[in-house]
Write a structure and sequence with these properties.
It is a single chain. Helix content is 72%, strand content 0%. It is mainly alpha-helical.
């Protein structure tokens, strides 16, 4: 982002040099320059909008924390959808990164895990990861695109639906763990 702030589009070589890594390392995580630049732009945007919400979320209440996260992520949908659609296109049509990690969405995973942290012990490892995966379907551009393109909801309606759905999924998982004394995925 520092290189882009100078008003030019840096090359992979320039980015690798600034990051003090090899070009090969960059290509392991970002198969194309376009994907790296879109991801970096999104990182800069979310650093100031989502990160503070996650860090300051209601302590101890995973339902509220996840609802706050959902709203923070979706609040700027209108301004970032062009980047989101580009990143989705690049990763759906592109090859899997050589590093074997997620094609995209690693920030989303981190945010969701942070929001759910107060429930980690209650859910257990398998339940925690299962709930994290379920929330990945409910937080981000993909569900917003569905609600806007298919359900024709406006921005506020879509934000409300996704915050409700994310909170409901967390409540269900916590209730199941509390009711049975077992993790939701145990026999």
């Amino acid at each position: 982002m520092r290189l882009m702030a100078a008003g030019e589009t840096p090359s992979m070589q320039e980015i690798a040099a600034a990051a003090e890594v090899s070009r090969r390392t960059l290509y392991m995580y970002f198969p194309t320059l376009e994907q790296l630049l879109v991801d970096a732009t999104l990182g800069a945007l979310t650093r100031d909008t989502v990160d503070p919400v996650v860090a300051g979320a209601a302590p101890g209440n995973p339902v509220e924390r996840v609802e706050q996260l959902s709203r923070a992520v979706n609040r700027h949908f209108a301004e970032t959808i062009h980047l989101g659609r580009a990143l989705i296109r690049l990763t759906v049509e592109g090859k899997t990164p050589a590093a074997g990690g997620p094609r995209r969405g690693y920030r989303r995973l981190e945010w969701i895990r942070q929001a759910l942290e107060p429930a980690r012990q209650q859910l257990g490892t398998a339940g925690f990861e299962r709930l994290t995966a379920a929330l990945c379907v409910l937080v981000g551009w993909e569900p917003m695109i569905v609600l806007k393109d298919i359900c024709c909801l406006d921005q506020q309606q879509a934000e409300d639906v996704l915050a409700f759905a994310a909170g409901a999924v967390v409540e269900k998982a916590l209730g199941a763990a509390q009711h049975t004394g077992k993790q939701p995925d145990e026999p």
